[in-house]
Write a structure and sequence with these properties.
nine-stranded mixed β-sheet, four-stranded parallel β-sheet, single chain, alpha/beta, globular
Amino acid sequence: MQPPRFWFTPANRPALMARLLSPLGAIYAKATAKRVAQPAQYHASVPVICVGNINAGGTGKTPTAIAIVQRLQAAGHTPHVVTRGYGGSLQGPAQVDETRHSAAETGDEPLLLAAFAPTWVAKDRAEGARAAVDAGADFIVLDDGFQNPALHKDISVVVVDAAIGFGNGRVLPAGPLREPVATGLARADMLVSIGGESQQAAFRQAWGDKISLPHLWGRLAPLQTGIEWQGQPVLAFAGIGHPAKFFATLRGLGADLLHAEALSDHQPLTAALMKRLAFEAKALGAIMVTTEKDAVRLPADFRAEVVTLPVRLEIADWSAFDAALAAVTR
């Protein structure tokens, strides 16, 4: 399901539905505040970096977690990732094995993260952190969990999609937020906004007066795949938070996007769905292209038929992050 349009009306001109649902949003915000006020259940013996968000849905947490993992590795650290494993059946703690586990067991994001660092799925994040430390982690990167008090966090990074910002600034169900912007940012150590220059400028104009913490700007850049995208006929599909961003990336590379199939976030890629897409691609004379996150959910019979376009987060200035890192490693 795609989010309702009224979530993204200007904050100073709220839609009628947003106003009507605001009392429920206030109740949701109070429940979140009560939960995050609880003392942490576990304080790990190594620093914990939480990569979370205030918005519900996709903001770019996984690319941010990957970028942070690689930053830590470049500095000589051995980070492990701990994640709840949204959509997976494993309770954990269990270390993700790409050769043995499926997305149905771990969720799609852990399978992707496991390609970069040891990754643990754990519904109980504190137990996941214990397992990671016992296995030799000297840093834990917590994928999501900003509103979860189970694990003490040494650095909290809030990620936001610059193109949509914080929507209408209201809390679920009146808007896209898990908690009010000011409340969430007050607990965070830094903000990472992801988007192009024009999107970043619009985000700063709309929300700059709410931001008093270190602010890192990043953009998602596609990696070279050996494919000449200019003029390439493409049928693309994506089951991520905002599929339009992936389609825009392909257009930016010069691909001839003949069909764009926007799926729900984490939607299963059933054999029936893939057969339909393969039939349409053949009729159009197009190649099928998807995201890294979707690729791990592909049925085995279709993995060789679909091209994956990977993207990586590029951050212009890491100095605020490096300073926070130095503070927790003294």
